[in-house]
Amino acid sequence: MEREEKELALTRRAFIKSAGAAGAMFLMAGALPSLARPALAAARQTESINDVLKRQYGGRKINMSHVNINAPIIAENGAVVPVTISSDLPMGKDDYVKSIKVYADGNPEPYVAGISLTPANGKAGFALRIKMAKTSNVRAVLETSKGKLYGAVKSVKVTIGGCGG
Predict the structure, then answer these.
(1) Which residues make beta-bridge pairs with 83?
(2) Which residues pair with 81 in a beta bridge?
(3) Are residues 35 and 54 in the same domain?
(4) Are strands 136-144 and 149-158 parallel, antiparallel or unpaired?
(5) Could you give the residue ranges of the DSSP H alpha helices within 44-79?
(6) Do 56 and 36 share a structural domain?
(7) How far apart are CA 123 and CA 115, in angstroms?
(8) Which residues of 8-164 form beta strands (DSSP E)?
(9) Separation of alpha carbons 61 and 17, rounded Å
(10) Can you give the pTM of this predicted structure?
(11) Fewest CB within a 10 Å sphere: which of 20, 121, 142, 162?
(12) Distance in angstroms (rounded) separating the CA atoms of residues 54 and 48
């Protein structure tokens, strides 16, 4: 009986030691992603806005007209920047705004959002809240059903927050 208690005591001690080691491993595993995050962000390759626009639209010319961007000049919080895009382009059966895409030049990934439209929408426009990593331009590009591109750019100063922290 004494031998069983001795084996049990050793087993209990080994169990506690193992549980402590496992707990330490879980804590370390939880801390590793937060320690590695800055290194991963630095290693993440970012595309310039020109590269993104070239990839999405090829070499087509973007006419800087018929688009209005309503955004704050100074965004108090870069995590929530209200943006409204509108256009005076027609929304007829044969000629309408087919899509609207929004970009934030200073973000690690400049493309922010996009919507598809039909003549049933009645008016070309939408409102959204975007994240901005830093002070930069917000731009919108509209594509018509006939393949024409129209755009606008507005500078927004970000004071705190944003994608980066």
Answers:
(1) 128
(2) 130
(3) no
(4) antiparallel
(5) 49-57
(6) no
(7) 13
(8) 62-63, 67-70, 74-75, 81-87, 97-104, 111-116, 125-130, 136-144, 149-158
(9) 68
(10) 0.70
(11) 20
(12) 10
Q: Are 38 and 56 in a shared domain?
A: no
Rounded Cα–Cα distance for residues 85 and 102 (Å): 9
Same domain, 29 and 106: no
- Name the DSSP letter for residue 146: T
144 to each of 72, 84, 130, how far by Cα in Å?
A: 27, 19, 24
d(CA 30, CA 12): 27
Residue found by looking up tokens 């930069």 in the block:
136
Q: β-strand 81-87 against 67-70: which pairing, if any?
A: antiparallel
State the first-to-last Cα distance of the chain, in angstroms, to the nearest integer: 62
DSSP secondary structure code for residue 73 in this structure: S
- Considering the domain architecture, whether residues 109 and 132 belong to the same structural domain is answered as yes
Q: What is the domain range of residue 84?
A: 49-158
pLDDT tens track for 78-127: 999 999 999 999 999 999 999 999 999 999 999 999 999 999 999 999 99
